[in-house]
Amino acid sequence: MSGKILVVDDVATNRIVMKVKLATACYDVLQADNGASAIKMAHEAQPDLILLDVLMPDMDGYTVCERLKADPETAHIPIIMITSLNDTEARVRGLSCGADEFLTKPVTELTLLARVRSLLRAHSRETDFPIPVAGAAAQGFAEGPAPFKLAQTDCVGLLLAEGGMGPGWANGLAGLIREDIRMFTLSQALEASKDQPEVFIIEADPRRLGSSLGILTDLRSRPATRQSRQIFILPQGETELAARALDLGADDVVFAPIAVEEMAVRLRAQLQRKRANDQWRSEVSDRLRQAVIDPLTGLYNRRFALGQLSNIAQEALKTHRTFAVLLLDFDHFKKINDAYGHAAGDKVLAETATLLRTRLRSLDVIARIGGEEFLMVLPDTDLDEARRVAERLRASIDDHPIALPHGKGSIPVTISIGLAIGGAAAPEASVSELLETADRALYAAKSEGRNQVSVGTVRSAA
Questions:
Q1: CA neighbor of 287 nearest in space, from 150, 149, 151, 132
Q2: Is 105 exposed, middle or buried (0-12, 13-18, 19+ CB in 10 A)?
Q3: Could you give the CA distance from residue 19 to residue 273 in angstroms, rounded to a whole number?
Q4: What is the DSSP letter of 449?
Q5: Are 1 and 109 in a shared domain?
Q6: In terms of Cα–Cα distance, which of 299, 280, 279 is closest to 289?
Q7: Which of 101, 126, 372, 448 is flagged as catalytic?
Q8: 67: helix, coil or strand?
């Protein structure tokens, strides 16, 4: 995994040692010898991660970290504090300033590289999507981000080892956070429940340390717990297992005994990241949906439907089957808008879309591809069946006048449909030719009196 790492330390020897370790692992290394230079380089170089000493003469690491995290241009950069300090107060202060990890010198190469890999991996997941949510409107996805509505369990799950940290430690932690703490057995944690904790704190069983790592992968493999954050507690000195846990996907690894004050800070950080990731995933899902869905009717839009049509056409040729392409257009739709207003016209489109969904199969593609023009693609459908479906749709809409609001009557609606058959029935016809055939058939239906179905013949197959 490549990455650009900024090493900040006022002692040249420390910087050189760190650079050698990181360069051996193929990381690009930048160096700063004081806090002011570190802040300047973070802005200019935008490193993927910062290794930050705490005790520096001009500006201590706490201050540097606070300034970097307070600046939107650098707040996203992960920071690992590396220092000779090893007391709970220093660790809590560093983590509270926004550091993603706090390591005490001397740091083994195994520990350092495992922490670096873990943070870079998490950072890359958060930055993989190229369009920032805040810029979605500018990119044309929507008017702006919708309010975040994803439900949160506000729960932390504890899987403590027998004879380990114990209920007293859990009670002490409960007094420092607002979330509920629930004790879990492994079988309870692996249940397919929607109310799983946002964060699991997992204490490795000292009698079965190696097998305890399997809990991490078990939780990651299940949909209900895949997005839950994981804090793994190991006995002191188990640095190799700690590195393996991080590489297996643990979000944080700590060593017992750990003060509840430090765990509370780490826990709050994981909860914040979990909720930020949940919001990010929810908004990305919304943006992707908006990119393929017509907002008025809830049907697919033209771009997505044409892609689906191409896929269906390719599959039909492989399996020597036929499929149907139907183009639907409303008769005299402009008169509806002129007589009843555009709001009524929109209601006609939306209710017709609903009717089409109820009359067609889930595997059929239904899309609004123009103002009042809909496209339907019916896989595994021959001409006789396609004609029956089209006639049924036409009759259903003819028999379903659209009610006006406030009891002001209803709008009679009719449609014309042009139909073409592709796949084995016309193996040489391209998707464009099939659409042109259905369009000519639609024009014929309009010319012959409207409110009817017309079947087109692909010219290359004629």
A1: 132
A2: exposed
A3: 29
A4: T
A5: yes
A6: 299
A7: 372
A8: helix
What would the pLDDT profile of 354-379 be if each residue is shown by its tens digit?
A: 999 999 999 999 999 999 999 999 99
Q: Does 372 qualify as catalytic in the annotation?
A: yes
* CB hemisphere CA count around 432 (13 angstroms): 0
Query: How deeply is 7 buried, as exposed, middle or buried, from its count of CB atoms within 10 A (0-12, 13-18, 19+)?
Result: buried
Angle at the Cα of 346 from the Cα atoms of 344 and 348, rounded to 5 degrees: 70
Tokens 């996805």, residue?
141
Q: What is the largest CA-CA distance in the chain?
A: 89
Contacts of 270 (CB under 8 A, 6+ apart): 199, 229, 231, 251, 252
Instruction: For residue 417, give the CATH number of its domain.
Output: 3.30.70.270
Range of the domain at 194: 152-286
Residues 261 and 353 in one domain: no
pLDDT at 454 over 90: yes
Task: Looking at the structure, tell me whether residues 457 and 311 fall in a common domain.
Answer: yes
pTM listed for this prediction: 0.68
CB of 421 closer than 8 Å to CB of 322: yes
Dist CA 7 CA 52 (whole Å): 6
Q: Specify whether 338 is located in the same domain as 414.
A: yes
The predicted pLDDT at position 61 comes to 93
Compute the distance between CA of residue 178 and CA of residue 154 in angstroms, rounded to an integer.
8
Integer Cα distance of 116 and 50 in angstroms: 9
- Does a cis peptide bond (omega within 30 degrees of 0) precede residue 106? yes
